[in-house]
Amino acid sequence: MEDESLYRAMEQRLGRAHLAHRLYMQAHWVSHVMGHGLTYFHIENMLWLHWLIRLLLRMVGLYRWGQRNAQRIVVRQNQVVVATWPRAFDGFTILHLSDLHLDINPDLVPAIAKAVAPLTYDLCVITGDLRSQMYGASEPAMEAMRRLRPALRGDVYAVMGNHDFIEMLTPLEAMGIRFLMNESVWLRRGEASICLAGVDDPHFYEADNIQKAAAKLEHRTSAVLLAHSPEIFRKAAACGFDLLLCGHTHAGQICLPGGVPLMINARVPVRMARGAWHYQELQGYTSAGAGCSGVDVRFFCPPEVTLHRIGGGARGRRVAEEA
């Protein structure tokens, strides 16, 4: 990080250890392909495999079909019932975007903008991976985000994923995207409030500090957690969060008929790799993502944006469906 004043400002906000860890991992990502973290085999870092997949798809004539599939973004609706949810926030709706990978295909920004244009929501959240490349300049993804940001109405909160570099934080926040880096904010309606918290990437960087993010939670506080990966689900449940919104898995991206993933690249039960799920008192939703990782194709696994509508009352079953 070349700008000393920027470094000091980020060090003050994130803490020296957090920032140093992030910068070290970014500089040495190649040596961490065979990782030591939550997944031991970081498949998204293996550039030769992306090349091989493209070659094989072209040889069998499926590459263009997969590219067209990747542009057909589905809007999903997810109803969430939280027993302690404040009456003033009944029907509160969150637009959830994840895994945009904006630099992989120039046609992705207009496709996402078109999908979200008719939607009504109270808040937008992005659960990581704005960029696709794991190395080099972030500017292509940043420029794409500059074009997409006007299509996202109102407040936007985000967390960083395993493809995102810490240097992106300040310019993205200048665009009006508030990142929650092991931090929390309170959303208020009259005397009622809910907590929105977010953690840094728990998958590759292992930079999440959920205890710090949850430090201001009180008993029976209604709270939503943003994280890039569902791998943090046990910690989220232990800290008392009601809802975890995440992504990272792409729901497999390349699946067998019926949406059966060939791999999910996350150490979680398969049921947590896509859509709505629960663990103890925690409810969760893992987005299939709006973009593609590594190879810009999808099979039997459409990209998505999701509207989560949250209300109070007895504990109920979450239902996700296509709008």
What is the fold's blueprint, element by element?
Elements: H1 4-14, H2 16-27, H3 47-59, H4 63-70, E1 74-81, E2 92-97, H5 108-116, E3 123-127, H6 139-148, E4 156-159, H7 169-174, E5 177-179, E6 183-189, E7 192-198, H8 210-213, E8 223-226, H9 233-238, E9 243-246, E10 255-256, E11 260-261, E12 275-279, E13 282-286, E14 304-311, E15 319-322
Parallel strand pairs: 1-14, 2-3, 3-4, 4-5, 7-8, 8-9, 9-13
Antiparallel strand pairs: 1-15, 2-14, 6-7, 10-11, 12-13
Helix pairs in contact: 1-2, 5-6
3D architecture notes:
The protein is an alpha/beta fold and 323 residues long. Helix content is 24%, strand content 23%. It has a seven-stranded mixed sheet with strand order 5-4-3-2-14-1-15. It has a six-stranded mixed sheet with strand order 6-7-8-9-13-12. A two-stranded antiparallel sheet has the order 10-11. The chain is globular and about 60 Å long. Mean pLDDT is 89; it is low at 33-37 and 315-323.
Would you summarize the structure shown here?
This protein has helices spanning 4-14, 16-27, 47-59, 63-70, 108-116, 139-148, 169-174, 210-213, 233-238; strands spanning 74-81, 92-97, 123-127, 156-159, 177-179, 183-189, 192-198, 223-226, 243-246, 255-256, 260-261, 275-279, 282-286, 304-311, 319-322.
> Span from first to last CA?
44 Å
Count of individual domains: 1
Roughly what percent helix? 10-25%
Determine the CATH superfamily.
Answer: Metallo-dependent phosphatases
Estimated share of beta-strand residues: 15-25%
Shape, please?
globular
Second CATH tier, the architecture: 4-Layer Sandwich
Put simply, the count of helices is 9
CATH fold-level assignment: Purple Acid Phosphatase, chain A, domain 2
What string, H for helix and E for strand, traces the elements in order? HHHHEEHEHEHEEEHEHEEEEEEE
- The rounded Rg comes to 19 Å
Largest sheet: 7 strands, mixed
